[in-house]
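Inputs:
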Amino acid sequence: MIDMDWNAVRQRLEAAGAASVHGETRPEEERKSILHERSRILAKRIDLEVAAEETIEAMEFELYTGVYALNCAFVREACTLRNLTPLPCAPPFVLGIANVRGRIVPIVDLGNLLDLPASGLGKMSSIIILQGKLVEFGILVDAILGVTRISGNEIRPLLSTMTGIGRKRMLGILPKGIVLLDAESIVNDKSLVINETVAWDFARMHDGE
Amino acid sequence: MENNELEFLKRLKDTFRVEATDHLRSISNGLLEMEKTPSQDRWTELTESVFRESHSLKGAARSVNLKTVESLCRAIESVFSALKHGSATPSAAMFDLLHTSMDIITGVVSSAEMEGSASDSEAARVNARSLEEILAEPSTPTAETGTPVAQAPSPGVNVPTANTMRVSVSRIDEILVQAEELVTIKLSVRQRRAELLAAQQSLQAWKDETSSPSGQQSSTASPRREERLQRDEALLGALSEQVTTLARNLGHDQYSINRMVDEHLESIKKAVMVPVSSLVEIFPKLIRDLARDQGKEVESIVLGAEVECDKRILEELKDPLIHLVRNAIDHGIQGAAGKITIAIAVPDSSHMEIRVSDDGVGIDPARVREAAIKSGIITRESAEKLDFDGTVALAFLSGVSTSPIITDISGCGLGLAIVREKVEGLGGSVAMNSRPHEGTTVRMLLPLTRSTFRGVLVRVTDREFIVPTVSVERISSVLRSAITMAGDKPMVRIDDVNYPVVDMAGVLGLTRRIRNGSPAGPLAGRLPDRIFVAILATANHRIAFQVDELVDELEVIQKSLGSMIQRMRNISGAVILGNGAVVPVLNVSDLVKSALLDAARTGTANKASKDPESAEPSSRIPKILVADDSITARSFLKNLLETAGYMVSTAVDGADAYARAIEGDFDLVVSDVDMPRMSGFELCTRIRGEKRLSALPVVLVTALESRDDHERGIDAGADAYIVKSSFEHSNLLEVVRRLL
């Protein structure tokens, strides 16, 4: 037979019960601040990891036959393309406009900006919305592959065969032949801003008749 | 840490800017009222209030370490302290100095960094010293100003204690946009109900079929099968009943959702109404300054500024009002003094009327008629048939100006046309009343709130577009054979009126075949017998646009195309339909212009439906010569004009420009006035002297602002004269467009 110290058990139970009751009646603010503190500590651990490696986060995607990447700092969001309304009278680099959760976002043909030959029919299933200082627009891509961390020493110079207007919008080549795009220059390119009126002179027109 | 401090300083400055703007407004208004020599009591009151406002502004400026503003405020404060105690005499010079001081402070406060440039602080120092000097002058109290000044009635600050609160504009805008979004829910529910009703009909049709006699003939079927059929029939009946109930309930829901959304939107709109004073309070000073520049004294009266109106409408009204006021000062008031009245009234619960009137010379109908005939808008025969008011109304058409020379203030013949376009864009109307020597009154009738608009959903080729219902005069379905030719142009006759017919697809650059060559839907092979024409109207034109289908009419909320597309031709925005589809909204004014341009370019409207790009090269690109000795100004003008689609060459001075003009084949010259070797005036005179170039339009762009130079410009034969300091890019482009 085991000798039970029932009194001790009873006391321990009471203490535990009191503690749990106390825990439940802990003031809302106090509980919140504890949770907040915990989440802060958890969040910090990830921050430190990034800082130690000194990398940037890049979003990788497929377009036509190639794989490209751009700095996530300029990505506002990425989503699947549900609708695309073509816009007549717009310049060729504008594919149309899309409804992104109630907002109208212009969709730009990245292939046109990079001077890529449109080869084959891609899925064109996703859009990446880029946010610059002045403008915001989406680029249509075949598929989003994911987000990876890249460090500066991984970036190699562009090939000499990458010429023309597209070259200005590229930064370098990552392992596996992924082309890192210059997202900053793309989103802040003033030539993409459209501001156009119908040139018109009434008097001249009627002179011609 | 440092970042936080900078952030804090920025927030502090933002707060200061809001506060300072309030003070500046009160001081400016106080000054203007004091200049009108009000009653003694009012004078005392105003002196006290301006004194207090400048004192508060001084304190606020010190807290953000703005020495320029602080020192200037100290000077203003001491002027008012002296006025309060009767130890100084108000004079025109004093008020001029005070107004300049306000301009300097406003400049510093509104600059982005709020640092205050070296020139600002220099100007502030000079101004402060002049104010001190004026105070130091021996005071010679006169009967009007030397009267004993009573103690201010209540030294306590007169703060309105109504139940109001300050909310930042951006937050209010957000709420307003969210409330308007709710209209989309109305559209979705409507769509869902339509889908449900369709489902109910399909079920009904199925039920009718299964219970038809042919179904009952299958008596040969096995009992088990018979049993199953009966069970299915019962289930189908129950299901059909359920769907019917669902559709009915959704109908009730739709009704209450519509009511709630409408009421909510209405109250939010009421909440964001602001008094018109927030717009018109800048005008007394603007009128004073513009008039002073022309050596005129113009008194301004603002009536009914307490009327409340949708803030977004007021924002749109600023430009038209400035145009009207400029017109009044430039053309209306010809003598040295005059009066401009801006009166706001509310004729009914949903509209307001703004009248801008002057007591000037009025509009000369003969000159308007001549100008309209000259610009080709109207033939002499029809112009002579018009009555007085009809003739005056011509002034609202683009390109009609009675001014002998174009200035940056007015005379481009666009002022009134712009007013009309803006006001009509807001759903309002504008009319003008003028009698020779009795002044001119322009009346604008405007809605008090900007509402959602109704739009017609049309299909063009395989695409859908929204046309604002307000611009649609009518939509008719006509037989294809009803489209006849008048000479080489297609037309349609509806209710005894002939309308030109233009294919909407052509104007939008859409082809009836998809680009890769595959046929586009039902239109590819056989053309339908009936077609739809939408008669779209602008102020001056009515055109029947051919569309493929009239789909629906809806209440919609127009959204902008995003920050990347600030403005594009023919499309003004987009709407999101109940099913989530995005549909572009057509800009009717642009469409009409595009249609007329296409017709002019290609000769026949039929050809307009070809790819518009192919028509482009046939019209020659105008060549412009820009002469300016400053490389900055030169490249700026070159860039501006090239962006607008012109071919531009440059010259470094007048002599260079003259040589190039002789050799080259230019359509227009834009020239600076002050240049080495040969000035702009001389260049202009030389060009006029050259036989081949005598008709070449010359636009002088100059830093000189005096009236003498302006007249020298006319003498030299310039076609337009634009002052650099105040010109807007669009202004120059409009002038150039008009002269070419």
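The mean pLDDT of chain A is 79. Flag for discussion at group meeting.
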